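Intended use. Records such as the LacI family transcriptional regulator entry shown here are meant for training and evaluating sequence-to-structure methods. They are not intended to support clinical decisions.
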Amino acid sequence: MNETEAPLRRRVTLRDVAALAGVSPSTASKALNDRPGQVSTSTKERVREVAERLGFTPNALAQAMHSSRTGTVGLITDDLEGRFSLPILMGAEDAFGAGRTSVFLCDGRGDPIRESHHLKALVGRDVDGLIVVGARPDARPSVSHRVPMPVVYAYAPSEDSQDLAVVPDNTRAGELAAEHLVAMGRTRIAHISGDPTYSAAQNRAAGIATVLDAHGLEQVGPTQFGAWDEPWGRAATRNLLEHRTAVDAIIGGSDRITRGIIETVRASGREIPSDIAIVSFDNWEPLISGSQPSLTSVDFGFKQIGRRAAHLLSAALDGQPPAQRVETVTPKLVIRNSSTGT
């Protein structure tokens, strides 16, 4: 039988790899697990080449018995829409490395009972660690004391100051939006935001106010707080244009709100951005891709948050958690036609 046909007939074993590479199973295991100083570089390369040629997949249970790890991580989220949980998941998977660590995604749906069920299930699977993604950027209850493995919180910090977390910088996001509009020569800037109970809404508003104050500008009216959706964006914009016609720029609290803003501004006969420039937050692809004109939006780096969460979890698993318990990821402004016209 041709040796390359082995994976089609039965599972390739470590003994198969060792025999073809001309080494003992013990040496093959050391080579594949990259144990420093125990196997020569040439032997490692030979064993790995054979393993790849045969399509050898290490037995996860056997690896766990030797390393005390299962190569699995749980990710629990309350983000039903996937606006940030899916990019965070992809970032975490990128950091863990393809084929090295599997991530089990569980949706808590904002239900403590469902979340408890998922926690028990993940503990039962002996996952190595957990990443917990909050539904909003405000501190959430800690679950670290309920599970026997390291936990990292992403997007929302834990209420326990000793827990590890990776969060976006919403204040800086507000500053970026305002700085860009001021640089574009806009001086009559309004802000339509979402739920005022969200720290994200308050922190973005604070960032905008800081920049406007620094340039001697006054915001057009107080920030209008409401819901995180298009109907609120439409209603707030109608109110703004009816009472404050001198506005030349609007900062929308989210891409959903901003879709309502754009629709209402265009319906009023004003041009974007020549009459009114528009900047948003989230840079969420499903909304950005269909926007006319294309939407300038602050990207919070959700994939980067996922990558950093994975790095922190790996460090904790290695017994080397960082002294800084909460890490902040700096957002970036993605400039498009809605604010520049180019």
